[in-house]
Design a protein that fits this description.
GO terms for molecular function: DNA-binding transcription factor activity; transcription cis-regulatory region binding. InterPro entries: Homeodomain-like_sf (IPR009057), HTH-type_TetR-like_transc_reg (IPR050109), HTH_TetR (IPR001647), KstR2_TetR_C (IPR041490), Tet_transcr_reg_TetR-rel_C_sf (IPR036271). It comes from Streptomyces brasiliensis. The protein has 250 residues and is mainly alpha-helical. It folds into 2 domains: 80 residues, Arc Repressor Mutant, subunit A; 158 residues, Orthogonal Bundle (Tetracycline Repressor, domain 2). Helix 1 packs across helix 2, helix 4 runs parallel beside helix 7 and helix 5 runs antiparallel to helix 7. The longest helix is centred in the middle third of the chain and has 27 residues. The protein starts with a helix and ends in a 10-residue tail after the last helix.
Length: 250
């Protein structure tokens, strides 16, 4: 399953909590909202939220972008927030699916940490609009939805935290490292790329993944972890590290 298919599947799941329909009249069965069309509308809403900001965007803006009357959108949602939730939850579910492949890897801590960083960077750059909205606009969600996204985010962060703990237990990562703080700092650095990365810019996702992986691994590696390889050997190991099998999530 490719990234587009995973995103559509996630939006379909999110739409179950976002769509709203009035009860059909007796004897006149009614078709539900078309998931493909809903995905198109969510895509349009995401582009506008990303460009104007959630607060400055109206339902009318979204309706005009997809060429329908404002009232037609209420066939799909109850409120503008439903579009925001579909965007954020859709991106979050895809990210969780991809990062769980890292958690299942049978590999050493350095390779798993490298895979985590690479998976995160590739996700952030390939879902740039939706992920930027998640980072910037999540506070606009209602409490219940916000707490759900935060819980999913905690599960995501736990994958990195567990890899760092594994490395400490095996002696290859700094025993004195605060794994919670390191997880927060590393993810913060990687998430910052959503503010400046451009598809037509000078750096590819693979270049960014390599630089971020070297930065993070170098920050946590212990003297024992360097023994026998040295810095250059470590860099070669990072470049040769296996990727998480994200395709297996299909």
């Amino acid at each position: 399953m490719d990234g587009r298919s995973r995103a559509l599947r996630a939006v379909r799941l999110s739409s179950e909590g976002a769509t709203h329909m009035t009860a059909p009249k007796r004897g006149r069965p009614r078709r539900g909202p078309d998931p493909e069309r809903f995905h198109e509308i969510v895509d349009a809403a995401a582009q506008i939220f990303h460009r104007k900001g959630y607060s400055a965007t109206s339902i009318q803006d979204i309706a005009e972008a997809v060429g329908v009357l404002k009232g037609s959108l209420y066939h799909y949602v109850k409120s503008k927030e439903d579009f925001l939730y579909a965007i954020i939850d859709g991106a979050t579910q895809v990210a969780l699916q991809e990062i769980q492949a890292v958690a299942r890897m049978e590999a050493g801590p350095v390779d798993k940490l490298t895979a985590f960083v690479g998976t995160h960077v590739r996700f952030a750059t390939s879902h740039l609009t939706a992920y930027s909205i998640r980072l910037r606009e999540m506070r606009e969600l209602g409490q219940e939805r916000r707490e759900k996204i935060q819980a999913d985010g905690a599960a995501y962060n736990k994958v990195m935290r567990d890899v760092l703990v594994q490395g400490q237990e095996q002696g290859v990562f700094d025993a004195g490292m605060d794994v919670d703080l390191m997880t927060t700092i590393a993810l913060g650095q990687m998430n910052a790329l959503t503010r400046w990365y451009r598809e037509d810019g000078p750096y590819t996702p693979e270049q960014l993944a390599d630089v971020f992986a070297r930065t993070v691994v170098s920050a946590v590696i212990s003297d024992r972890g360097l023994q026998g390889e040295g810095v250059e050997g470590l860099r070669r190991s990072i470049r040769a590290a296996p990727r998480a099998d994200v395709a297996a999530q299909a």
